[in-house]
Amino acid sequence: MSAPSRQQPLDEALLSLSHAHQARYLEDLAELVAIDSGSYSADGVNRVADLVRAHLERLDFSVERVPLRQAHGHRIGDVLIGRKAGRLAVADGGRRLLLAAHMDTVFDDGAAAERPFTLNGSLAHGPGVSDDKGGMVAGLAALEILASAGIEDYAELVFLATPDEEIGSPASRPVTRRAAEGTHYALALECARENGDLVIARKGVADFRLTVTGRAAHAGIEPERGANAALAAAHLVIAIQALNGTWEGVTLNVGVVRAGSRFNIVCPDAELLVEIRSATDSGMRAATAAIQEAAARPVVPGTRVTVEELESCPPMEDTDASRRMLDRAQDIGVRLGLTFGATATGGVGDANTIAGTGVPTLDGLGPVGGADHTPEEWLDVSTVPARVTLLASLIADLGDCRGD
């Protein structure tokens, strides 16, 4: 990493450009927040994609727009992958960097009209203002000021904008993995935590359906001929919940239980929906194996259990490589007068998928925001110039390894 004495003038120049860009940032943010772009609002997401694509093309990015299959029975918007080559070959010390944001929100159509973009003092409000439109616009702003400063000392910049992150990225995940291929670092643009911290780790998640099959019988006349699937399911619930605390950073939750249909029939079938969240791949594997073991030995004679994995997303692990990225970000922060740490979260994002490909990943690089997924969602716009500068300086720093 270059010495601070060499980097300080660059940080100051980028900070000056970021302050000058603030009015444009607010205009772009207000325009995006005014668009309803819930995960199942494909037309709204694609309107956001139109604006992001136009912005990237003005910055000389080539943009691929990828239509997606349906997810959960709904049409999903498109994925954008923007690419811009720098002036350094990889062999000469250039690095490929991936910036990732999502265009969808958790809010239904009509939310933008009910709660339009507002700015009260330094706090902006509106659906998606923090999660993740504020972060996405910050990424575009960072690219803008790098271009204005003539900084192209990198091999390639890749800008990824996904349409379905808020529902677990079921349709876009393969495209995200493809975009991550060959990149050296990933910077995820979710907003910083309320205290300014970045995100160093995210738990992975896996969802399972356990189907319990028993044997029906008349509950009053010959219950002994039955095999009660509800009872077997109840024992499974206790066994699975008891696994909590077995492995550090792993949680298990039986979220849904369904069983039977009539009072007077020994229950012949039941279903459990189970979630695992884990900070590590090893924890995910251990918990999965424990569920399968419990399912292989049902307590009630005559019952059997099948296990089906429905969805899974790898953890974004706290690694030495991501810690080195954090160190570089904190060095820049010191020069900008920012002090922040890093935190782990149980929430899942596109950063999980990227990190799962082996690319060192750091998240939370947008401005400071909070109350995500609620009507009170906010973004502190006074943090925008310094946070955009932090992001731009980090791109410049990671993109050129000649001084490392």
Automatic annotation (TrEMBL):
<dbReference type="InterPro" id="IPR017150">
    <property type="entry name" value="Pept_M20_glutamate_carboxypep"/>
</dbReference>
<dbReference type="InterPro" id="IPR002933">
    <property type="entry name" value="Peptidase_M20"/>
</dbReference>
<dbReference type="GO" id="GO:0046872">
    <property type="term" value="F:metal ion binding"/>
</dbReference>
<keyword id="KW-0378">Hydrolase</keyword>
<protein>
    <recommendedName>
        <fullName>Peptidase M20 dimerisation domain-containing protein</fullName>
    </recommendedName>
</protein>
<keyword id="KW-0862">Zinc</keyword>
<dbReference type="InterPro" id="IPR036264">
    <property type="entry name" value="Bact_exopeptidase_dim_dom"/>
</dbReference>
<feature type="active site">
    <location>
        <position position="104"/>
    </location>
</feature>
<keyword id="KW-0479">Metal-binding</keyword>
<dbReference type="Pfam" id="PF07687">
    <property type="entry name" value="M20_dimer"/>
</dbReference>
<feature type="domain" description="Peptidase M20 dimerisation">
    <location>
        <begin position="200"/>
        <end position="298"/>
    </location>
</feature>
<feature type="active site" description="Proton acceptor">
    <location>
        <position position="165"/>
    </location>
</feature>
<dbReference type="GO" id="GO:0016787">
    <property type="term" value="F:hydrolase activity"/>
</dbReference>
<dbReference type="Pfam" id="PF01546">
    <property type="entry name" value="Peptidase_M20"/>
</dbReference>
<dbReference type="InterPro" id="IPR050072">
    <property type="entry name" value="Peptidase_M20A"/>
</dbReference>
<dbReference type="InterPro" id="IPR011650">
    <property type="entry name" value="Peptidase_M20_dimer"/>
</dbReference>
<dbReference type="InterPro" id="IPR001261">
    <property type="entry name" value="ArgE/DapE_CS"/>
</dbReference>
